[in-house]
Automatic annotation (TrEMBL):
This is arginine--tRNA ligase. It is an enzyme of class 6 (ligase). InterPro entries: aa-tRNA-synth_I_CS, Arg-tRNA-ligase, Arg-tRNA-synth_N, Arg-tRNA-synth_N_sf, ArgRS_core, DALR_anticod-bd, Rossmann-like_a/b/a_fold, tRNAsynth_Ia_anticodon-bd. Keywords: Aminoacyl-tRNA synthetase, ATP-binding, Cytoplasm, Ligase, Nucleotide-binding, Protein biosynthesis. One of its GO terms (biological process) is arginyl-tRNA aminoacylation. One of its GO terms (molecular function) is ATP binding. Pfam families: Arg_tRNA_synt_N, DALR_1, tRNA-synt_1d.
Length: 582
């Protein structure tokens, strides 16, 4: 995980206090915990334990700690012991200003690098011959943001788009393709109507016994490696991939063809999963199927719950494939962190898979697997979001509607924008609104998809944050100066709003650390929103272009520029673009 930044004032202060406590304790093995915050009591929890150990009052210990804090006067403008042993600490303005200058000089804006890990992120996961629908929104957007953050802090990140491209449905799909003819089928699929193609094949399978026989025979040929069948299967995969890529390109996510890892890729590994589990003595028979009983799981009757890895007829299932994924990612890719951005309903299944992988020794420390679970996207009726026809809402339709609505909103807000420029901005705003509405919600919760709220320029929304960035850019346009020209300035913090903005800017690294640590993008969203509202308070109380003298003007312009850079970088880590005018 990311290391603490040398520009984080709270961490600098905590480190100084920790060293002082250890000195006072005589390194007696006590680990004091200090909680410090701006203009608040730093509750010396460690002081209470240390006072008891040393037979002194907490106030005596607090006095002794302060005496040991070399250089504390450079960090704090006010230091005092209050009450039974509280430390009241107020940061020095010059100290904060110096840290701001360090952040401004740093292309990474104070975000620390990490001890590199090889991370595999499994996300998006559409199915071949089926269109991506709104159910793919959260896995795709959350996964993309985690990829961006983990890559930015220095991890070696491997994106894996685990597409469903194997199994019995492909028998009926290939036979339907042959009935239509390759040319007509290709035209049909290239128009993006994957769902229509699938429904036609399913209708034939359900209503025509002869077609069923052909489909089942085709599955045997596919699994047996028949060249012609494999060619037709590959055609279906390629046509479907074109649809996936159109969605990814429109949404602005990082997935490419190089990241595709279909279920078919693990086909040869599936028998090995069974063989290896058997050799380890983990396989048992249950109702004719091969299973593993990981401890701690029971069914409704209280009986041990098995993970089925081979059906009674000899077929494999999702559990077999998921165990093969673990083996492949650990042994072939040499990954030590596996992230699965998968819906919350799969929690028990993945937990059992991970536990079986632990039992088999495939997933052993320092390697770990984490289920990054998420809730559902709901419609206004608080049910699973669907289209007017009652089918799941198509992903690409949702994104295109967001862009259209954003274009209308921007045209109303800024009618003088040239159309071509407005279209580009609408793309950023519409897609940013969809992403931010998703990412700003705690991922484990369901959320209601609300067009009006999502595209609002007020409140905790993507457009509000994009507009905050654009408004700062407009300050420099009105001033007629380049933003880079104020980056050599150390801000002079005088007003309370300047100080609050400085403290919030210096918390950027901590926000990123916290977000990655919990794999929860909403935490970074909360920080960015708080930064924008803190900037608004600063801008309302502290004149920038009409400041009383040039030094104050330059100082405040430097604060404006740094705020815009942090907003831009923070939103970029979420996969959201920031226009310079709206």
């Amino acid at each position: 995980m990311p290391t603490p930044s040398s520009t984080d004032p709270l961490l600098i202060l905590s480190s100084a206090l920790q060293t002082a406590f250890e000195a006072v304790a005589g390194r007696a093995g006590i680990d004091p915990v200090i909680r410090s915050s701006e203009h608040a009591d730093a509750q010396a929890n460690g002081a209470l334990a240390l006072a008891k150990e040393l037979g002194q009052s907490p106030r005596q210990v607090a006095d002794a700690v302060l005496a040991q804090c070399a250089g504390l006067t450079d960090i704090c403008s006010s230091v005092e012991v209050a009450g039974p042993g509280f430390l009241n600490l107020v940061f020095n303005n010059d100290f904060l200003a110096g840290l701001l200058k360090q952040v401004s000089d740093d292309p990474r804006l104070g975000i620390g690098k990490v001890t590199k890990r090889k991370v595999v992120i499994d996300y998006s996961a559409p199915n071949v011959a089926k269109e991506m629908h709104v159910g793919h929104l959260r896995t795709t957007v959350i996964g993309d943001s985690l990829v961006r953050m983990l890559t930015f802090v220095g991890h070696d990140v491997i994106r894996e788009n685990h597409i469903g491209d194997w199994g019995t449905p492909f028998g009926m799909l290939i036979e339907h393709l042959l009935d239509l003819g390759e040319t007509k089928a290709a035209e049909h699929l290239s128009l993006g109507d994957l769902d229509g193609f699938y429904k036609q094949a399913r209708a034939k399978f359900d209503g025509d016994e002869a077609f069923q026989v052909r489909a089942r025979s085709r599955v045997v040929l596919l699994q047996g490696g028949d060249d012609e069948t494999r060619r037709l299967w590959k055609l279906l995969v390629n046509l479907s991939t074109q649809h996936f890529n159109a969605v990814y390109e429109l949404l602005g996510v990082l997935l490419t063809d190089d990241d595709l890892m279909g279920e078919s890729a693990y086909n040869d590994l599936l028998p090995q999963v069974i063989t290896r589990l058997d050799k380890l003595g983990l396989l048992q028979q249950s109702d004719g199927a091969d299973v593993v009983f990981p401890p701690g799981y029971t069914n409704r009757e209280g009986d041990p719950l098995p993970l089925i890895v081979q059906k009674g007829q000899g077929g494999f299932n999702y559990a077999t494939s998921d165990l093969a994924c673990v083996i492949d990612r650990i042994e072939r890719l040499n990954a030590d962190l596996l992230l699965y951005v998968v819906g919350a309903p799969q929690a028990q299944h993945l937990s059992m898979v991970f536990d079986v992988a632990h039992m088999a020794g495939w997933l052993a420390e320092p390697n770990e697997a984490v289920h990054v679970a998420f809730g559902n996207v709901l419609g206004s009726d608080r049910k699973m979001m669907k289209s007017r026809s009652g089918d799941p809402l198509k992903f690409i339709d949702l994104v295109e509607e967001a862009v259209t609505r954003a274009d209308e909103s921007i045209a109303t807000k800024n009618p003088n924008l040239p159309e071509a420029e407005r279209k580009v901005i609408a793309q950023m705003v519409g897609i940013g609104a969809v992403k931010y509405a998703d990412l700003s919600t705690d991922r484990v919760r369901d959320y209601v998809f609300d067009w009006e709220r999502m595209l609002s320029f007020d409140g905790n929304t993507g457009p509000y944050l994009q507009y905050a960035h654009a408004r700062i850019c407009s300050i420099f346009r009105r001033a007629g100066i380049e933003r880079e020209s104020v980056r050599n300035i150390t801000p002079n913090l005088v007003e309370p709003q300047e100080r609050e903005l400085a403290i919030k800017l210096l918390a950027f690294n901590a926000a990123v650390i916290d977000t990655i640590d919990k794999y929860s993008p909403h935490r970074l969203c909360t920080y960015i929103y708080e930064l924008a509202t803190t900037f608004t308070a600063f801008y309302e109380h502290c004149p920038v272009l009409k400041a009383e003298d040039e030094n104050i003007r330059q100082s405040r312009l430097a604060l404006c520029d740094l705020t815009a850079r942090v907003l831009n970088q923070g939103l970029a880590l979420l996969g959201i673009e920031t226009p310079e005018q709206m």
